[in-house]
Amino acid sequence: MVALWVVLGVLIVILLFLSGGYNGLVNARNTVKNAWAQIDVQLKRRHDLIPNLVETVKGYKNFERETLEAVTKARTAAQQASGAGVGERSKVEGELTAALSRLMVVVERYPELKANQNFLALQEELTSTENKISFSRQAYNDVALQYNNKTQQFPSNIVASMFNFKKEQEFLQATEGEAERKAPKVSF
Question: Which residue segments constitute the domains of the chain, with CATH numbers given?
């Protein structure tokens, strides 16, 4: 009779361990998905601002057409990559960031454009959005680290392997290009 109670107690402890580990892993995985969704919201906001920015800049004659085309092309590529993985999406968005940085540098040559109220408002919105994207990326990397730790550290790695929580979450990083690693130089 005592052996039965001991076996029953051990089974209950194992069940509690498995359910707690499983629930913790589900929570971590969903937190990573939520963090990625927050980045996606900010990226969409940036994508929505770009056409207004381009139209405002287009109004100034002799503005460099190649720069505007590069921004438009990068925006289109970023929108088309919306279903891509973290690494590919990060790369494409990095190209858009670089194109926007080049646009802001070119704007320096147009004092009347820099003084335009519509441009200034759009530039402020874009700057705010870029800051939110940066914070969202940092939050994503933090929760991806927590998820990866849970799936790789003992004893939760046992539960992770039992229930197929094996996929390691990618971190968002600056791409190979030096342009993205450097802070964009924009002066007002």
Answer: 26-181 (1.20.1440.20)
